[in-house]
Automatic annotation (TrEMBL):
This is Putative D-allulose-6-phosphate 3-epimerase. It holds the Pfam family Ribul_P_3_epim. Belongs to the ribulose-phosphate 3-epimerase family. AlsE subfamily. Substrate binds at H66, G143, F144, A145, G146, D176, G177, S178. The active site is at D35, D176. The keyword Metal-binding applies. A divalent metal cation binds at H33, D35, H66, D176. It catalyses: D-allulose 6-phosphate = keto-D-fructose 6-phosphate. Gene3D superfamilies: Aldolase class I. GO terms for molecular function: allulose 6-phosphate 3-epimerase activity; metal ion binding.
Length: 221
């Protein structure tokens, strides 16, 4: 079967099986998805640069940080300090500093992405889209696992694919939020490059990560 590029959302894993899950996933994924919140941009807290450093002791796969913060400049610097491979910034909070932040990330030899919340159109990132390494489309309101799936956000994936093809851009397209069995049919029609999968799509499917993964793959097909 074709390779599915899954990026597990680690804020939704079972902490009592931290090591087992990372060890298993290390052999099956290209990257890990790390949600970083500040309690202001979204009303929650989750993972942190410290968590990334700890996880790195168990895997050398790429870490992709999803910033849900009102002050991206501060967090970008923290993530550069620990050499987080992919830094994804909220499109809604980088107006006026986008080029400086993207250049800063690239100068450190890391990849730069942006995340579009449901209310944010692709149009918003056009000024700098050509220098992005990844664009993440939120298919839920951010901040928590298990939110209502917003299917029409998938249209942005089609739009981004078309733009990439026409213009020769190089960004990867990722989707994040309630990526699970209930929505696979719709999702397959647009085929993002990377699927962020959380609780309902992976970690909650069984008691151990190996069975959960097998279930996920079976549901995907
Ligand atoms: C939502 C986060 C997602 C989330 C995914 O704010 O950005 O990464 O944890 O979990 P599910 O797929 O369970 O919604
Ligand atoms: Zn996320």
């Amino acid at each position: 079967s074709e390779h599915i590029n899954i990026s597990p959302s680690l804020m939704t894993m079972d902490l009592d099986q931290f090591k087992e899950q990372i060890h298993f996933l290390n052999d099956h994924v290209d990257s890990f998805h790390i949600d970083i919140m500040d309690g202001h941009f979204v009303p929650n807290l989750s993972l942190s640069p410290w968590f990334i450093e700890q996880t790195r002791k168990l895997t050398n796969k790429e870490m992709s940080a999803h910033l849900m913060v009102t002050d991206p400049a501060f967090w970008v610097q923290q993530l550069i300090n620990i050499k987080c491979e992919i830094i994804c910034m909220p499109a809604e909070k980088i107006n006026g500093i986008a080029f400086r932040l993207i250049d800063q990330i690239h100068s450190a030899g890391l990849k730069a992405g942006v995340v579009l919340n449901p209310e944010t159109p692709v149009q918003e990132i056009m000024p700098y889209i050509d220098i992005l390494d990844k664009v993440t489309i939120m298919t839920v309101d951010p901040g928590f696992a298990g939110q209502r799936f917003l299917g029409h956000m998938l249209e942005k994936i089609t739009e981004l694919k078309k733009l990439r093809e026409e213009q020769g851009y190089h960004y990867l397209i990722e989707m994040d939020g309630s990526t699970n069995k209930e929505h696979w049919k719709m999702i397959h029609e647009v085929k993002p490059d990377i699927y962020v999968i959380g609780r309902s799509g992976l970690f909650n499917l069984a008691d151990d990560i190996q069975s959960s993964w097998q279930k996920m793959v079976a549901e995907f097909e």
